[in-house]
Design brief:
The complex is a heterodimer of chains A (114) and B (160). Chain A has 2 domains: 75 residues, Orthogonal Bundle (Arc Repressor Mutant, subunit A); 36 residues. Helix content of chain A is 64%, strand content 5%. The longest helix of chain A is centred in the last third of the chain and has 33 residues. With 160 residues, chain B is α+β, with helices and mostly antiparallel strands. Chain B has an 8-stranded antiparallel sheet.
Amino acid sequence: MKLDESLDRTLTALADPTRRGILARLALGEATVSELAKPFEISQPAVSRHIRVLSEAGLIVQRVAGTKRPCRLAPGALSELDEYLEMLRGALTHNYRRLDQLLAKQAKGKDRNP
Amino acid sequence: MSELLLTTEGETHIIVKRRFEASPEVVYRAHMDPELIQQWCLGPEGWTMPVCVNEGKPGGKIRYEWSNGEGAGFFLTGEILELDPPHRIVHVERMHMPDPTPDNHVVTTFLADGSGTLMTMRMSLPDAQTRKAMLATGMARGMEASYARLERVSGWKVAS
């Protein structure tokens, strides 16, 4: 896989807040699918789909333990490049949410003083 | 699309796309008027921009200084290269931490999209050494900030 393809896959995997939450939980250690589903108020199949995306992006690995498939973070899953892009995404996400609010405020002010 | 779309272009560029619910004129102004920039271009929560200079003309200077209110801070300088209001801003910028990072060449475009604006920003992907330096600064807390919020909503404690 080319570097940019692999990067885009990582970025897609990280773009979803539930998947970032799953990664944050796995940063604490291994967890089963039902343990991962619990805090999110979404179904186990939905969590399983998120887990598949994370797994395909190489961010997590699963092992078989009887009927369970516990997940853990893949070693070195987040490269320094991923980390940098996530930092940038975090900063920009905050910036643009504030800009949304500023634009909404300006639109309101305009309505009042046409 | 009101969510941020962040992709890479090859190994040298980053593309950011975002839609805003305002005209290109209004969104362009929010990117050029220092009084407006100071209200939103702040990065992670808790940071402010006490100094904001944007001379607003080709050849004009840019200087943004951020502070976290606890003694940490850094600044960015740059120059405006091209302006085509309200559709296009081309500028170059560098972070000072305190050593300057290599120049980041940024092209920002604003296209009318229904009642809103689709913004596209194309910028240089910093080299590995620069990325490391930027991650090491206090600015590198975007990810930690989102983990902190996760802790608040979920009750999890994320190991650091």
